[in-house]
Each structure stands twice: as C-alpha cells, then as structure tokens.
Amino acid sequence: MTTPTQSSSSGGGAPGLRYPSNKKTIYDRNLNRSKNAELSRAAFAYLFVEMISYAQKNVRNLVDLEKRLNEQGHPLGLRLLDLLLSRTSNPLSSIRPTRILPLLQFIAQTLWRHLFGRPADALERSESDAGQYMLYDNEPLVNQYISLPREMSQLNCAAFVAGIVEGVCDGAGFATESVTAHSVGEQQAEGGGTGGGGGMWPGKTVFLIQFKPEVLEREEILGRGGG
Amino acid sequence: MLVVFALFIISKAGGLIYNREFHTGLSKLSSNDYLMLAGSFHGMHAITKQLCPAPPTPNVQPASAAGLAPSPFSSRPTGIEVLESSHFRAQCFQTLTGTKFLLFTEPQQPNIDSIMRKIYDLYADFVMKNPFYTVEMPIRCEKFDRGLDGFVKVRS
Q1: Does the keyword Transport apply (chain B) (predicted)?
Q2: Hey, where are the domains in chain B?
C-alpha cells in the first residue's frame, strides 16, 4: 500500500511541473537573485559535452548537427532578451531595441557580458550585403576545450551561441534568415589577414547574422522618419 | 631546465592510447613495439600491485568514520611508481579511474610530481572535456597536443 502513495506524492499533481517541498518554484524567485552569480566553467563544459552528444544522435550530416545546436540555443536567446532588459538599471534603456544597430550593440555588449563575462571582440557590417552583419569572438568560451576530429573540421560548436543570438533577434522582432557560426582562423592566415588574428587566435569565430528583407525595409523607413 | 623524453598514456585495459616524444635523438621503435611496451608495463604494474606482502588493513574507528563513505582508493596498494636506470627515469601516475600516465625523463629531473600534475590537468581539460573523444580510445586532440607542447617546450 505504500507504493501508490509514494508515487503520487513524488509526482506532485500536474505532470511536467514539479513543485519543491516549500512550494516555491523557479517562478517565485526574484529575477535579480542570480544577477551576479557565476557558474563553474568545468560544469558547463561537461554539460556542453552531453548537449553535443545528444544533438549527435541520429544526425545525418554536419549541417544537421549545427542546426540542432542552433535550436538548443534559440529558446535561451528569447528568454535572455527579456531577462537582460528587465535587469537594466536605467529604465529608459529597458525598452527593447527597435533599430538594428542598438540591437547588435545589445548583443555584443550586454548579452556577451552576461554569458561570457566580456564584450564581443568586433562587430562589422558586410560590404557586399547590406543585411549581413558579422560579430567576432576571438576565443569562444564554448569551444575552449573542444578539438575537432579531422573529418569534422568544418563544424563549429559555437552554433549553439549562434542560436542564442538568433533567439535574441527573433524575440526583438528582427526576423533573421539565419545566424551561423564559422571558424575564421585558417582563412585569415592564408589571405594575409584583415584582422591579423589568424595566428594569434586559432579559434576565432565569426557569427554571420543575415536579416530578412522586411527588416531592412522597416529600418529604412525608420531611418527616414528619424532623420 | 626540463628534460622530458616521452609521455605514454595507457588505458584501463592496458592499451596505449597516447604516445608522444619530446626529445630528438631517441632510438626509434615501431608502433608495434610501443604497444608491446605499454602492454608489458601494464602487466608489470598489475603484478607489482599484488606483491605487497601484507595488504594494509583499513584501521577505521567505527565512531569517527560512521558518517563517511568508505573510500575504495586509499588503502589499495598502488603498484610500481618509479623505475630508474642510469639513463632515464620512468614515473608512473595512475588516476583514480585506472588510466596510467608514464613519463620518461632524465634521472636527475626534479619535481616530476608537479609536471605530472600539470599533464593530468591538461588531460582533464582537453581530453575529458572534449565532446568528440570516446573514453578508452586513442587520444587525438589537437588542443591537448598544443597544451603539452606549450608546457614542455617552454620549460625546456
């Protein structure tokens, strides 16, 4: 007779959401409680190992794998946008960005500081394509311990971070065609180097952010109205 | 001055999963020889473990140790740790999970323990935290190689 009572109490009523014994869920906590909290890097590394193994199950090719990592990051980005905006001390700046540049600044500064403890290393606009922006990270934290096997050298596990960036853009109402992560270490070493980072930063990664045409259209209209 | 000749990593099962030479002018061995060397050392290590005449009895006082889980590691004899000859010294370090690090150095080389510790650190970081490494398999991790190079070559 003990078994059924035990199982019903541990189930805690509604399936899916479990209540701790003091009835305080994660939603009852103050949002600023973990504002300055830091996470063990090793703990994250092991978690990320498992996330990649999970994403690798039944995966057909590297593009698929990157897509899955991207999908794992996307919901994080959606939530981080709201969280970080609600935490800003200046109430005026807690309005979500409505123009492309403030949005990218927000990503490169606020989001990067929150996730990695430092701002992103560079932000550039593509010369050939007006809707494409490049965000550089010289040494992505997620790749710190990862050595790619030779047959997977095209993969960049920072696709997870690209997913977070995509989530932030989507959440702010800036639809993107794609946000992808690419390693640029070797290319720059061969081509003489625009940033000269090839040798010094072997793990240098660029996040290509491609906005949809309607976003650019709106940006243009807003630009005319403002100026 | 640091003179490290070579590093072997031997898996729990006795297979050679990593071997690296840091010094030029060592006599060349075929890959088969390396595997045999690692296998022989593994066997020798297992035998020396059994040689301990009277295995130390865990003398724990039930009162003080009641709250602690019994450690499976502390009372176990370790097996061969150092092998010294006129030309080299082989230091063995076994992790709690049974992986062995075998480091060949000059006989007079001081503080091998700290070198070993640093190599273990590098292994824990760049091998065990690498999602594309399968445990007990040969180690092919670029960052581990680079870390070893940086550590051994900078100090020699």
Answers
A1: yes
A2: 4-49+73-155
- Chain A residue closest to B127 (CA)? A145
Is residue A48 within 8 angstroms of chain B, CB to CB?
Answer: yes
Q: Are A216 and A131 in contact (CB under 8 A)?
A: yes
Tell me the per-residue pLDDT of B6-58, one tens digit each, with 9 for 90 and over. 999 999 999 999 999 888 777 888 889 999 999 999 999 999 988 876 665 65
Cβ separation of B126 and A53 shorter than 8 Å? no
CATH class of B4-49+73-155: alpha beta
- Which fold, A41-226? Muramoyl-pentapeptide Carboxypeptidase; domain 2 (3.30.1380)
| B contacts of A199 (beta carbons < 8 Å) | none
Higher local confidence (pLDDT), A147 or B59: A147
Domain boundaries, chain A: 41-226
Contact between chains at A146 and B132 (C-beta distance less than 8 A) = yes
Beta strands (DSSP E) in chain A are 122-125, 132-137, 176-183, 205-211
Contact between residue A114 and residue A104 where contact means Cβ atoms under 8 Å apart: no
A53 and B131: CB-CB below 8 Å?
A: yes
For the segment A28-40, the average pLDDT, to the nearest whole number, is 82
A45 close to B (CB below 8 A) = yes
